[in-house]
Amino acid sequence: MIRRVAPALGLYFLAPLISEFLLGDFPITKLGIILILAPVYGGGALLIREIVRRTGGGWPRMIVLALAYGIFEEAFTTQTLFNPNYLGLNLHLLDHAYIPALGIGAWWTVFVLTLHTIWSISVSIGLAEALVPERATQPWLRTLGLTIVTVLFVAVATMMTKYSIKQDSHHFIATKAQFAWSAVFVVVVAGAAFLFPRSSSAQSSSRAPSPWVAGFAALLLTSLFEVTPPAWGWGAVACYLALDVIAIALYWDWSRRDGWNSLHRLAVAGGAALTYAWHAFLQSPVTGGSTRLNLISHVVFGTGLLILLWVAERRTARVVGASAA
């Protein structure tokens, strides 16, 4: 049984590690909070993956569901889309490209939803599946497992919502209209995910680029995303959207070409993950730990990522080679 559910457990804890620790928000001494973060980050990633693998959908469906997850977390669980001073941290998240009629900052909205869509969910799933390439498209959980993950996700998300309201200096709560529209967007986006057809084989006679090219493109695009200054306001929003469109168009085209395989998908996920690893050295941690501790943490998590990528590449290459033989 342990062997059967091991990939699911791996994703369950890998998602918060990437989302918060590889990103640089928390140092290694705070690893204990992964037990709180896993039911939300890991649970969300696992539920999305299981839904897509059971319905036969491919990565477009996975990514759109990841966007729905991002809206849910930031509109309801943390309310950062609407809170002008989240937890009293003076982060000024809504100051850039503020839209008074909606009570949101366009910069933060696009930025944080992209973080969840790409890294919290998609990259985490991509890396977890690459570690077990022979089971990458198979469901990992049965009904009982899915039920447990769902209950934990709802329970801990509710707990985190109450905690963030209690810890907020003004006990901020979004308006009914903001909650209502957020719920509508979650439902519409999640529903749109199922408009994509089931996974299909290559539809272009053109040859896919090498995994190295795909991985470098992912590293470059996500790095440009991370270094775009928030102070650019609407200019930053335009840059984010342009990078998103380029990435979608590029990988939509490449993934439909002959020769595109699981090594390419690993390269794309790995390239994006490496952006988090290097950018963590520039990140201001949420906890404000010592410079030395944060540096050690970045090195440890970055090294861990490199080891994971090495193991995943060896396993994936073996499966790809066997299928081509």
Q: What are the key terms here?
A:
325 residues; globular; two-stranded antiparallel sheet
General description of the model:
By secondary structure, the chain is mainly α. It has one domain (2-324). It is 68% helix and 3% strand. It contains 10 helices and 4 strands. Strands 1-2 form a two-stranded antiparallel ribbon. A hairpin with a 4-residue loop joins strand 1 and strand 2. Helix 2 (34-55) crosses helix 5. It is globular and about 65 Å long. The two termini are 31 Å apart. The mean pLDDT is 93.
Rounded radius of gyration (Å): 19 Å
Strand content: under 5%
- The shape is globular
Low-pLDDT runs: none
The end-to-end distance, rounded to whole angstroms, is 31 Å
Number-wise, the strands total: 4
For the biggest sheet, the summary is: 2 strands, antiparallel
What percent of the residues sit in helical stretches (DSSP H or I)?
55-70%
- Look at the helices and sheets and give the structural class: mainly alpha
The secondary-structure element order is: HHHEEHHHEHHEHH
Mean pLDDT: 93
